[in-house]
Each structure stands twice: as C-alpha cells, then as structure tokens.
Amino acid sequence: MQRDTIIKGRGLGGSSDLTLLARIKPGMVPAMDSVTYKTRIKRVLDTLHGARTASHEYSVARLLSDSVERVGVIHSVRVAVLEPEDNVMLAVTFDGSWESYIRVLWEKVGTLLDLIFCSTEGYVTAYDHTFEEWLGWARRVQVETGFFYGPPDASARDLLYLRRVERMRLRDCGQPGVDSHRSELRAVLPTAEEAVDRLFQGATAPDDPAIAYPGDERMAREAVRTGLQGLTTLYRLRDLYPSAEADDEVLRCASQQLLLEFVQKRNSGVIKKALDDARERFARQLDWLFPTPDAVGLRRPAPPAAHKGGVVPAAVCQEVQAGILRTYPDVTHGLVLLLSFDAPAAMSDFLARMRDPVEGVTSEAAMTGAAAGTVFRTLGVTPAGLRAAGLTETELELFPEEFRHGMEARAGQLGDVRHNHPQHWRRPASYQGLDAPPNSAFPVAMESVQAVLQLRGTAADADALAAVDYFEPKHPLRAEVLKLVQAVPGMRILSIQSLRRNLRTQQGRQEVVEHFGYADGQGQPEVEPGIHKFDRNRIHLGELVHGHANTEDFEPDPADPKLDPAFAARLAERLRWMGNGSFMVMRKYRQFASRLERAVSAGAAQVAAALGGAPADYVELVYGKLMGRTRDGMPMAAPQIANPDRRNIFDYGNDRQGERCPLHAHIRRAHPRQDAAQGGR
After folding, report:
1. CA triplet 614, 615, 621: central angle to 5 degrees?
2. pTM of the entire predicted model
3. Does residue 266 register a pLDDT over 80?
4. d(Cα 669, Cα 608) in Å, to the nearest integer?
5. Terminal-to-terminal C-alpha distance of the chain
C-alpha cells in the first residue's frame, strides 16, 4: 500500500520552515553541579541569548560575527524547552529550499547546535560526524509543520541590504558632491565575517557605516576585550559539560566557532602580545580554548580538488548512462517519451529490453566511438515507476525526499509561484499515434508518468534534418519509436516531446545555436583532463553521478569502521540502488526571443546616445555584456582567443572589476572560474 507523501517543511514565496523536536535525556548530568539535562539546556539558552542581546543592543561595534548571521539566509530562530513533555524545539525560518539550507546549517552552526542538542536522546554531533550522518538525525527529529507564514518575496539578505541602503541615504542626504544613486548601485552587502574583518583591518567600503577608529590599535584592543568577555562567559559552562562524557569537547568546539574572529586572530598571531598581557588573569580560560600552541578551530577534511582527479574508470563508464558525463556527438534530433505501463509484467518486459546491449540504454562507454547512425537511449524512472517496478515503500525511502516529493509539491520552495505555479503549467499534450500530432485538449497528468525514455539520433539527409516533429514522415527517429511499441505491447506512450538542434555554419564548421542566437555548449564542465587542460573547468565526478566524491563529501564507503553500523548498512543499500546513477530534472520553458531583441535594441540606443554612432553598432556588444560571451561564443573577458576549441580556457583574473565581462553576466554568475583549489565552480 502506498504511503501518503508527508512534506515536513513548509514553504511560502521563497522562504521555508524547519522545525526539529528532540527528546531531552532523562536523569542528571554527571557533573559537579547536580543539574538535569533539561536544566543544562535552559542555562545554555539563557547564556546564548544574553550574549546576543549584548552584542546587538549594547556594543557600539560588533567585533565578533553572529554565528546565526554567518548562515546568511536565516530570518528567525527560536529554541524552546517544552514542558512537561521534556522536549527541546528548534524552529527556523530561512530562504530557499530545505536541502540547500541544511548543509549550510551543519557547516556554519553545527557546533552551536551540538551545544544544545547533545543533551537530547540519540543526537549525532556535527563537529565530529559527516554531513550525511548528522542529516540522518535531523530527518528523524524533524516534525511536520501544519501552518507556516514567512516573509514572501523578500530574502534575509534583501532586508539587510535595504536597511543598509536606507542608512546610506540618511548619512549622505544633503552632503555636497555625493551621488547617492551611484553609491546605491555600488552598495554590496558583506557577509557577517567580512563586516567584522573590515572594522579590524580598517578597509571599509563606501557603503559601510561610519566607525570612529576602523583599523586603529584601539579597535584591536577592543576586539581582544570582546573575545575575552565571550570566552569567560562560555568557560563558566564547563561545570555543566564534563569531560567524562566528551561534552567538554562539544563546549570547546562550539566556543571556538562562536568566538570565530577572536580565534582566527590568535591563530594568525596578530593579537599575541595582547593575549600574553591577558594571561595573568585569563590563563585557565585561554589554555582551555587553545589547548595547543598550534592553530585551533573546526577543520573538517575535504576531498582532493577536482583537477587532481584522473580519468573516469572504465567500470564506471560501463554503468553511467550516455549524455551525463559528456555531450552526445553530432546528434541533430531527439525525442522524449513519457511512458506508463498497463501491468507490472509490461514494465518488466520494458526494463529487460532496456538492459539489452544493442536495443537498450546506451552507456557512456558505448557512446564513445559509436558508429554513424547510432540511436542513443537514456532512461529515467519516476517514483511512480519505481513502485510499479515492485519497490517497497521502505526501499523508496532510500531515495532523496526531493525526488520522492517532486517539483509540484515543492513549488513554493523552488520559486514556482504566481504565473509559474504548477496550476498554471501547460501539461504535455497526449500522444495520438505516430502519424498524428499530439492533442492538447487531453493533457497528461504528470503523476501518471512512470518512465522517461530519451532518444537521440542524427539526420542522414537534408529532408530528415528539416523535420521537426515526430509525426513528420522524414523524422529520423520514427522507426525507433515504432520498433519499441511493437516490442513491448503493454507499454503506453503518454506524450512525446520532439527536440531538434539549431545549427549554423561558422568558421567552416557546424555549431549549435540556442533560441536567442548564442552559440551553445561553449562552457561545459569536465570530469577528467581534456585535450586543452584547464583546471578551473574541472568538477568532481560526484557532482554528476551518485557514489563518488564531490566538492564537499568524500566517496561514501559503507565499510568505514568509524561509521555507525546502522548508518553503514543503510548507506550500502542506498548505493546498491543509486550507485553510478544520477537524477534528471525536466523543465520546459517558454522563451520570448522577441522581448530580448527589443530590450537589446533599447539598450543599444542608449549606448549610442552616450557614445555616439548608430544603435546597430552596439547591438552585439549589448548581447555580449548580458551573456558574458558574444553570440558567436567569444568570451568578453578574453576576446583574444581566436581558436574556437579554446574558448572555454580563460578566467577573470584580468577583469576583476567586470569592465570587460560584467559581474552580473550569465556565464560569470554560473561559473565564477575561481582558483581550482576552491572546487572550480
């Protein structure tokens, strides 16, 4: 029997909710003071709230960044002890979707949560466990929110930015020679850590608030004083966190993160003299926070940089489907078939055919060096399809919640609101046979789709190349569809989406062009060394397929003896189903090329009015500034690259201010091309 889909976290207009409810341990803390775990949590919460109140309401300059504000997307946080149930509740309102937020929560404030939730049953500490292990705990204690109201259409950073701009206006109002509009355009909201660092270094930006002594020695002394005050407050909690239960290490790690800038300045040596002077009064506190003369702080191990990886193993290429690691070679046409099956036996027959080495799914290995005229096939199965194939609800729970819930159920979290809401989506037109166009009067219900089969092929002649839709007699993939229908009688085609590449000849060769006229496929990432080695374009294999290291996580290993046995067993089962697989998101967007053309023409006219000349002289320049590449594929940041094969080999080292390629350009936002050691993305 299919279980009801339960979406625990609610979303509204881009903001989302997370509520955790954990049972407090019974009994007493084995400490010098006779206190219960519930009392310990209450004292910790009082301490944290008092420190935050002093930082925000009393201090003239905040020289320690707020651990919650470091996350950057939190609107509000509430932690409460519920009585008489003896539960502790965490309720957070944040921007974006749950899956993108929860990792940042583990990374930025995991040790702070350790300080609170280590007093609850079954807690998995964040400071010494992997993200996946900690995530398992979070999912277990997450509770369903029945009603949620958050700030729609306004992110946490929006509110901070608008407050910053308003202060600029008040400060600059009436000041001679101040162009407030230009200042607002240049205003950049720093992170919580950057704001503190600017005060200490004295490198303030024009939109920073005025501070009496930025970068002055007095600011450094104040930073040390603030850090010692915080350290003294946290050190008083040691009596509640005995080392016998390893709770002392929980408190130390949390303190090092809460006092982040203080710890960083101690590690760098810039406040050594001040700490030496303070040692007479604070020796015990300093020795506890800094148990060794070496640098301290939470340093989770990270996988090797992507550019240090070698070629993809042959065994992996045999299992990964074509089109995931590399683009298809020289294809011109495609079909996307939405399928369902009359009975489990029909789906079984279909899956058996898909395993056939000739008529089935194309592997990455088979795609390499394929003969001309080869039809490439890739298959995706929906949650409904997995149920039809016989998976139990317990087995389905091994797959990510985002996959099981689907896009429609998560529309608010994904930003699909108002005109983009699922109720306004245009559903696929139903298939009426191979010789008839689809019927939009009978749209397909997306929940009825059990499998998605993609076919790719190459037109053999000019007539086939001109064909667009599958019902045209010359379409190069019609025969493949007919063969499949005849081979699997119980398979039903719900809808077919026709695909065709737009091609144009440039510099003597064919290139793909997207609907706005730009050369497409110029900036593909690479999972192994390419012909033209360029480390900044490399990504980890695990960014594309499951079961391998990615930017954040090492390759999962169920045999790791450090893993909890239950977690290791679940990991092994998950890899059995998803290893070397991937998740595909399918969206069909309507593009208004004419609107872009009008906007570019208007922009070109404005440039011409300012610089002289005819608007037509600036049309391609405006197109290039919007995308970051000219429409023939030339990168704006490196216009000297003449070889089309090398147009993805550049960075922004000589254009840090965005004078050639604007900072807002599409390719610069999608791929900043930072140092390869930072992950290359």
Report:
1. 115
2. 0.86
3. yes
4. 27
5. 43
